[in-house]
């Protein structure tokens, strides 16, 4: 066989000594003999080893490209986010209390979409509320009116109602409210739109203390702007109807995301690329904390990721 190797090439040896149907083991043996004789190191490829083992080689798991469009659908899906609470006569009570001036609202929301939303102020609505890219402005205003007018421990006993009581008219959340039949200062914690027990008021306060918004460095327990008052109103609605803390944090994150789209798309990019956590799996309470959702916290994260291509440059306004 050694003489054959000298006279014949490898293919001829295989043809001569390994007729059709012979086992792979014979071929491997011939390879070994051939390599020893010619002093050539034979290193089978990984592909060959995979095929001999009967397994198909697999490549790395593909990573989803986080384009602006992909991030938007993760953070602020076009279908919107629904909180399945009972809105009931909340809107009608806001109008009756003077927190909302119906004529001003009708003027402000005069398009077709706005006209449909007006039913939340004039009817008893059994269904929940859905925030989306088109109606986010309506809900920040309407929930702002609720948070401002609702009789609240957060407003009465919190930092605004105690330390800054003499300066209530200087805040964006009070002086900035121009869609009511009364001035913001006179509306402040003035009406029982929602019935809340003492225990529920305590729960509202507890949750409000850990939810921040990117326009400033204050938690919802210091609602000095429209977004703070709006989230306070959302918390009060959900606590009164028996929602758990986790559900409330999830809803607050969703509403914040529609009001501060760029901020939360940036944060989603951070979590998915730096912590390898999908946006749908993040802990909403953690994201809403000062580390990420305060103005300073967000800016610190922004420095780590810099600009993300394709993301919109937008933020929530603190005016009505």
What does the model show?
The chain is globular. The longest helix has 15 residues, at 24-38. The protein has 320 residues and is an all-alpha fold. Mean pLDDT is 84; it is low at 1-11, 13-24 and 30-63. The chain has a two-stranded antiparallel ribbon. The N and C termini lie far apart (94 Å). It contains 20 helices and two strands.
Give a quick precis of the structure.
The protein is 54% helix and 2% strand.
Key traits:
320 residues, 54% helix, mainly alpha, 20 helices, two-stranded antiparallel ribbon, disordered N terminus
Specify Rg, calculated over alpha carbons.
32 Å
How many β-strand stretches?
Answer: 2
With strands numbered from the N-terminus, the spatial order across the biggest sheet is 1-2
Number of helices: 20
Q: Provide the β-strand percentage band.
A: under 5%
Query: What summary fits the major beta sheet?
Result: 2 strands, antiparallel
User: What coarse outline follows from CA principal-axis ratios?
Assistant: globular
Helical content stands at 40-55%
Distance between the termini: 94 Å
Order of helices and strands: HHHHHEHHHHEHHHHHHHHHHH
Low-confidence stretches: 1-11, 13-24, 30-63
Secondary-structure map with pairings?
Elements: H1 2-7, H2 10-17, H3 24-38, H4 46-53, H5 68-75, E1 81-83, H6 90-97, H7 102-108, H8 112-117, H9 119-122, E2 129-131, H10 136-149, H11 153-157, H12 172-175, H13 184-187, H14 198-208, H15 226-240, H16 245-259, H17 261-274, H18 284-288, H19 290-293, H20 295-305
Antiparallel strand pairs: 1-2
Helix pairs in contact: 5-17, 6-10, 10-15, 14-15, 15-16, 16-17, 17-20
């Amino acid at each position: 066989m050694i003489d054959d190797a000298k006279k014949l090439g490898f293919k001829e040896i295989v043809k001569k000594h390994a007729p059709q149907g012979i086992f792979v083991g014979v071929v491997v043996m011939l390879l070994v003999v051939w390599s020893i004789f010619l002093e050539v190191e034979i290193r089978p490829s990984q592909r060959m080893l995979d095929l001999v083992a009967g397994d198909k080689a697999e490549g790395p798991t593909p990573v989803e490209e986080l384009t602006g469009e992909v991030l938007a659908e993760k953070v602020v899906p076009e279908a919107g986010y629904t909180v399945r609470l009972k809105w009931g006569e909340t809107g009608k009570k806001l109008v009756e209390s003077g927190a909302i001036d119906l004529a001003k609202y009708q003027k402000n929301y005069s398009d077709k979409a706005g006209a449909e939303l007006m039913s939340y102020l004039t009817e008893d609505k059994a269904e929940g509320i859905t925030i989306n890219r088109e109606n986010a402005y309506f809900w920040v205003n309407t929930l702002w009116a609720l948070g401002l007018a609702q009789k609240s421990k957060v407003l009465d006993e919190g930092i605004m109602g105690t330390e800054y009581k003499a300066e209530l008219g200087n805040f964006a959340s009070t002086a900035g409210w121009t869609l009511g039949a009364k001035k913001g200062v006179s509306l402040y914690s003035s009406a029982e739109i929602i019935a809340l027990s003492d225990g529920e008021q305590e729960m509202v306060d507890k949750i409000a203390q850990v939810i921040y918004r990117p326009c400033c460095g204050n938690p919802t327990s210091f609602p000095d702007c429209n977004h703070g008052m709006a989230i306070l109103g959302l918390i009060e609605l959900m606590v009164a109807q028996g929602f758990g803390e986790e559900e409330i944090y999830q809803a607050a994150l969703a509403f914040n995301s529609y009001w501060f789209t760029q901020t939360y798309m940036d944060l989603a990019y951070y979590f998915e690329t730096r912590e390898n956590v999908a946006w749908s799996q993040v802990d909403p309470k953690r994201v809403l904390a000062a580390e990420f959702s305060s103005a300073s916290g967000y800016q610190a994260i922004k420095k780590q990721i810099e600009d993300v291509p394709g993301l919109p440059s937008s933020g929530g306004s603190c005016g009505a």
